[in-house]
Structures are given as C-alpha cells and as structure tokens.
C-alpha cells in the first residue's frame, strides 16, 4: 500500500523510480572513435555472433556460419537452414542455436549432434566442463524481437545448462530480463541481463545470483572471456528518452499497436536510416553535421572488464559513427574482433593496451 | 478516432491549462495567497460572530481600518525601499496628542491643526530618514530608538495636556466630520485611505519616483550603480511614512477625542504583521498598495473579532505573533519556489490530431527522389543559418544569418560576400517592397525595413493587445515571414506569442494555436492582428488575385488561404490540409504556382505523441531538451503546388547531404535558391522548363 502510494507520488514528481537518469559515459567508458577507426573492416551483411574454433574466427550471419580465411575474406562454411540466433565454440567445433529452438553442433567431438532444450529465443551460449550453457532472452518473443521484449518490460528470460553427452539439462536461473550474454569464470557463470543493465554471477550448479556490475550505460549483450578479463558488447545505448518511454505505459502500448516497429522510440542496432524514425533535439543537424554527442537510438560500444568486473577501457562508435549495434566481441590472436550487426561489418583492431 | 482520443481532445479543449502558467508569470499573482487568507478570515469570523456583516459592524470596522490601513501603507513604503519603520505606532500617538492639543487647548483652526500635525510626523520621519538614509544607521535599531524617544515625548505631552484635553470641547463640525462623517456613503477615513492607496499605487507602479523606490529595495547597489540617489530615496520614504502615520493619528483624534497612555502601543507589530501578511517582502523591492490594503483588512478583522469574541488581550497578541510568523514563512517559501512552479507548469501541451500523413513512396506525389542532389553550393561554410533567401534585380543574393546580419552575395558567381546590414536580432523572412527596399521579419525585434542605402528602420514591433489574453501579447516576439499586398500593406506571421525565438521546440511540444498573422499598414502606420490561434504560422505568400494570401502552419502541417479583400474578405479556406511534413516558407513560382519548403517530416512516434498531451508534458519536465522527441527536421524537401492544393512536384535531397532541412526557397531566373535555418550553405538548382527571365520583383511589382 505504502509502496504503491510512494510510486504514485514518485511518478507525479519524477523522483525515485520515475527519475529518468542514465549513467554518464566517463572514466573507462569515456567516448572515443576507436571502432570507426579500426584498421581492418570485414563487411558481412547481418553479422551477429563471433566465435573462435580450430584457431579460426567464425561469424554467424543469417542462416550461415562464415569462416575468416587467412586472406581476410569471409567464406560461408556451414548452412543451417534457419536463422542463427547464437553461436559458441564447443570442444573443437561450433554450436549454433537456430530460431527454431534447435541447437546444432558442427565439427569437433560432438559433430552433428542436435539438442532441443525447448527454448525459442536463444541469445547466447557458452561451453565448458562437458556442458553447454544456454541463455534464453524471453519466453514470449523471438531473438529478433528484442525491441518488443524491452518495450513490453518483460522479465521472462532464463539460463539453462545442457549436458553435451546426454542432452539432459536443467534451469539455473529464470525471471531474468533478457539475458543476452554468457561467459564462464571457473565455477561461476557471468550473465548479462540486458533490460536491467547489469552483469550477474550465477553459480554453475545453481544458487542465488549475485550482481557483479550494475547500471551500465548500454544494454549489455554477449560476453567473451579473455586473458585477464572479459569483453562485453553493448548492443544499444541507453537513453533518457527510452527510459522515459519505458515509464509511460499508455504511450508504449499505443506505440506497439500503432507505430511500425522500425519507427518506434526504442533502442536499435542502427538508427538514422529513415526520416520516419524518431529524432531527438540534440540530433538535429547543425551546419550540415550530425554532432557526435547527439542522443541516439543506436551506437557501438565494447567494454573491457578486468577479472573483478571493473571496467578497464572501452571502444566506441558514436552517434555519427559507422559501427553501430555491436552484438559480439571477441579477442583472438592479438586482435579484438567486434561484430557490428547494425552496419553489417566486423572490425578488427590490435588488442595492444586493452589488457591494461 | 477512438473514444479515449475524443475524451482527451475535449478535456484539452475545455480546460485551458496554459492559463495557469500565464497567470503565474504575472506580478499580481503574488496577491493571490493574501487574498485567499483574507477570504478565509472573513469566512471564519463571519460565521463565528453574529451580525458580523451588519451595517453598524461593518461601518465601525471600516472606520478603524481607515486609520490602521494608513499606518500599514506607511510601513509598506519603507519596507519596499528595503527598510523598516518601527516608529509608526509612536508617530501615530504623537499625531493624536498634537492634534488634540492644538484643537482643544490652543484652539487652532482645523486646517492649521492638520497641517501642523502632519509636519510633526514628517519631522519624525525626517529624523529617521537622515539617520538611516544619509548616516546609514541600521533601520531596525534607529527606528526602535525613535519609537522610544517619540513615545517619551508623547508621555510628557500627555502629562501636561491630558487633563485640559479631556476638559475642552472643540467647536468645529469639520473636526468631528473627520472622525464621524460620511463621504459618498463611506466613512471619511475610508475615503482618505482609498484615495491615498490609489495615489501610492500609481506612484509605485507608474512613476519615476516609485520605480526608484522599488529599485532601491530590490538591490541597493544596482540602484546606486545606475545613478539613482539611493540616500535621498530612502530618506524620503521615512518622511512619507511619518506623514501617513501622523495623518492616521489625526483621524484617530477626531474619532475618539481622548488621549490615553496606551494609544498606539503595539501598533507597529500589528502593522508589520499586516504588511507581511499582504505579501510585502521584508527584504524590499516587492510590495504594493494593494498588498498593504489586503493585509491591513485581514489583520484588522482578526484583531477586532478576537476582541469581540472575548479573547483575552495576551492571547490576542500571541495569535497575532503566530500569524506574523506564518506570513513570514509563506513569504520566503513563495519567493523561493514561485519560479520553480512556473517552470513546471508553463509548458502545457494540448491535443493535436493530424490527418494521416500521405506516403512518400510509390505513386505518391511526394515520392522520394534525388532531384536536389545536383545543387550548386553558395557560401559553403561562410554563412551560418540562412533562413530565407532573396535576390534583387541585379541577381545579388540576400540572406539573414544567426549572428543578426543580412549578408549579400554578389552576382554572378557569388564568391564575394559582404554584411549588407547588421540588425541585432534574427533576420527571418524577407521581401522586396515596391520602392526596392528590403522588408525583413526579425525574430525578437519585429518588422523592419532596410533601404538600399543600408538604413535600418523599424516599421512595427507591436500590435493591438487582445482583451482576453493574460500575457501581454502586444509585443512581437517572433515575427517570422512576410509578404506585401499590392497596396503596400504588409502581412506577416508571428509564430508564437508564448515563447521567444530559441524556444521554438517548446512551442512544437505544445502544438497549440499560439501564433497569429499581423497586418502593418504603412499608409496609416497602424498594426492590427488579423488572424489568431494559428499553430506556428510560418510562410506567407500573396496569391495572384491581389485579394488573398497563402499561409503555412508549421506544426499543423497545413496550408490555408486567407482573403483580406474582395467578396470573400475575412474567410480562411484550407488549401492543403495533410502535408507529410512541416511547412515553412511559401514563395511564388514562375508559372503561377507556388513553392513551399518542408522543414522536416512527420514521424509516426511524434504524431502519436501529439495525441497524448500528458506524455509530452511529462517529457518536457523529466528529460533534457536535447533528449526530447522532436519532429524530424533532419530531412526536408521542396514542394510545388497550385492554388487548388494540387501537388505538382516534389524535390528531395534524400540522405540530407546538402540540405538536411529546408526552410526556404526562392525561384529566380530559372533557378531555385535554397536556404535552411541550421545550415551553412545556400543551394542553387537549375530548374528545367521554368521561365528563365522570371523574377519575384517582376511578378509582384511588374518592374524589370
């Protein structure tokens, strides 16, 4: 009763939960243009997830898994017959989660095995200790429908594990708000909970979750473990306007019903392609230029964390950049590979200095 | 339209939310709380005391109020100038005893008595004034000392004359008239105070002396810096205070005719309570006769009613003290929070349903294309924000820019430029008059003329004030675009009367009919508003019949036609009511049709927000303006249409490489010249199949 009253009052005065605040990009998150200035750009339409298997970088895009040849060319390697929603390296091979809910293994010890954990929205996977850990973003929306899931303010995601040998599995955590990334850290699983902008630590054998990093300035996506830390892909920036719209149920409801999805006031992997998209005050072009600090519905962000989940450094593509919607980032062979799904390109830059 | 939309629409039609904010911008709103307190006091005691509103009761109360009110006004004047006068009670007592002694013992004539008594009061005031004003002693301590000294003098006079005063019986009807007579049906003292209150009000609000007093009270140092004789002003307020207090003493003497030791004791506290309760600031700079009147009536009623209710005198003072404390607290909080409340409630969006936007693809006349791609750029990087573009007979280009200049680019190659005139405001719409001078709407200033020898003349900066408008809408805030009728009358749009130029996004957020079209007649020099309640009226263009013009309403996404002459005089007809974007300037095309610039395009998210005023209001409060949902003004286009509203062609720069937003375009000799208010270039586009000798001037004035 009192809580409801306090909420009503907050809503009236714009305090507490109704205060629309977004953390500033500062410290290790200080903006730069390093994603746009990356030395190597490898265009791949609709690229989504990157994984390293057999010493080679693989990327999923649409129905296919592509392999990066030594000549820095993408070669379509495996066809899956359905859109791939997540991919992970498994025992010398690759596991691909399909939009149908199936998980298929290509190559390695479990080549050809198929699993069906009964999840239609697999957003991330990681393998270790004979198990495959699977994050499901939502119980009601598909992986490509993440904007709707955010706008519906759902928290129906879950994390499961599957025994690779037997195919048996169980749920480690549920009621999560779009878990979108997984990484293994010993006996703990690090999961990003996108709609709550935080990283969680989940014991691999079940148990209560622990918040490792909170109030991130972007929606955290896939995580990859690297020497001495982790890389996190922030697939879309948080913005005051979106936070405000999330607190406006009437507007959200009508927007979902009346406005075509590409033109929603919602974070996206790539914005500014159509003049029907929402524009914010700071995004008005002045003297023919879009300001880099302009509020935007899409941006590129990769954050390097140390082992204690403290942010160390970051790679950015700002409002006027061309490497938006980073869905996956991985470090391999001295290079950081970041998949920009928004702009259909994988950028690679030297990892030097990132481990600091 | 759904039921809830209909209800929202009626809700916003029925309740004029914006008036709340406009009322709060008024200075007189400070009187609202004192007035409410007065009404509450009236209601409480009116119901507690039988026959409270009876004529005998009211007359008696009014007569006493006349005296008390004078003292409050006296104190108010000193407080407004930043001081305080605690000696008013003693001065009042002094006035009483002096007047009684003169009329009863010395038996002077009444005018001489009044004059001398007032002089005595003025003398006390002068002492205060010299000490506080010129010697700059603390007002509080100084007047406290005067209080004691004057009280001592009164006591000495009492000792000497009280017996003879009690024995004497002045033989003068005029003397008794002061205390007991009626003038125009009101007690004499009420007539006196009303007259004085009106005079003081006029002096404070309308005269140089009054402004000086307010300025000194508001900021002594600033007043000194602008050359106001601070010391003299302060001194004079104490003199006025002494005069008014002793005048009240005269009225009191006439009414009661008796001198007592308790006359005027504690009066300064009651007067101070009344002044503060009325809303006069203790810190100075804020106060008025009306506030003093409201406060004095309130305190008068409280004090008298408590006595009539039989409350003991100690409790009476206690209650008065509590009221004073509460009044001071309210005064401080109100002063501190008023502007915060104002900033929260001033922005008041309203329901704005636009017709469905036509598509911009397929067979639509608005279909996307790249026809603006081949523009030739003029002044790239050398001009900041050419809102409007115009060319003279020699093909030179004139544009207004953000720094307030009108810049001229020289034909034929436009490589050379110069500042043609510096206006100081924001030059927006331009038109050449018949005599060749350039008429300009200047945002923040009004309608101006720049002659070819660069003389800048003001044509008008105000129009008639609307009777029912709360904010003063006579000044022109945002003159936007103009056009000139054949007889020389200038019709120009004022986009909004509620906001200044740089606040245009807030007006969009409101989407109310805040704008108007104004006519300036150079033949009579008069300025009149011809059309009101338009939604950000922007471009204006004369039609070819000489009796009407087309005008665009930006946030309304429509173009209408208004007849100012002829059989349809005074009527407005829609021409295009469902534009896919936000129209800006309209200009003539060479073949008798018209060009209109769309500054931006409608987006579904904004169209939806327009139907949800509460959402927009909360957005304005909760998030920074840079984060607000804007109409998409990053993509614009140019449209050609005819008088029937038929769209003939659309010119796009899709991708916005050169002209992300377009606010104006001007056809001249087979080319189209394009400007944008946030752009840094002018575009020149070769038009196919348009008359290569046509210019605006020949079209308007038949010159070559």
Automatic annotation (TrEMBL), chain A:
<protein>
    <submittedName>
        <fullName>Strictosidine synthase</fullName>
    </submittedName>
</protein>
<dbReference type="InterPro" id="IPR011042">
    <property type="entry name" value="6-blade_b-propeller_TolB-like"/>
</dbReference>
<dbReference type="GO" id="GO:0016787">
    <property type="term" value="F:hydrolase activity"/>
</dbReference>
TrEMBL record, chain B:
<protein>
    <submittedName>
        <fullName>ABC transporter permease</fullName>
    </submittedName>
</protein>
<feature type="transmembrane region" description="Helical">
    <location>
        <begin position="265"/>
        <end position="285"/>
    </location>
</feature>
<feature type="transmembrane region" description="Helical">
    <location>
        <begin position="181"/>
        <end position="204"/>
    </location>
</feature>
<dbReference type="InterPro" id="IPR011042">
    <property type="entry name" value="6-blade_b-propeller_TolB-like"/>
</dbReference>
<feature type="transmembrane region" description="Helical">
    <location>
        <begin position="32"/>
        <end position="53"/>
    </location>
</feature>
<feature type="transmembrane region" description="Helical">
    <location>
        <begin position="108"/>
        <end position="132"/>
    </location>
</feature>
<dbReference type="GO" id="GO:0005886">
    <property type="term" value="C:plasma membrane"/>
</dbReference>
<feature type="transmembrane region" description="Helical">
    <location>
        <begin position="230"/>
        <end position="253"/>
    </location>
</feature>
<dbReference type="GO" id="GO:0022857">
    <property type="term" value="F:transmembrane transporter activity"/>
</dbReference>
<dbReference type="InterPro" id="IPR001851">
    <property type="entry name" value="ABC_transp_permease"/>
</dbReference>
<keyword id="KW-1003">Cell membrane</keyword>
<dbReference type="InterPro" id="IPR018119">
    <property type="entry name" value="Strictosidine_synth_cons-reg"/>
</dbReference>
<feature type="transmembrane region" description="Helical">
    <location>
        <begin position="139"/>
        <end position="161"/>
    </location>
</feature>
<dbReference type="Pfam" id="PF02653">
    <property type="entry name" value="BPD_transp_2"/>
</dbReference>
<keyword id="KW-0812">Transmembrane</keyword>
<dbReference type="Pfam" id="PF20067">
    <property type="entry name" value="SSL_N"/>
</dbReference>
<feature type="transmembrane region" description="Helical">
    <location>
        <begin position="317"/>
        <end position="335"/>
    </location>
</feature>
<dbReference type="Pfam" id="PF03088">
    <property type="entry name" value="Str_synth"/>
</dbReference>
<feature type="transmembrane region" description="Helical">
    <location>
        <begin position="65"/>
        <end position="88"/>
    </location>
</feature>
<feature type="domain" description="Strictosidine synthase conserved region">
    <location>
        <begin position="480"/>
        <end position="566"/>
    </location>
</feature>
<keyword id="KW-1133">Transmembrane helix</keyword>
<keyword id="KW-0472">Membrane</keyword>
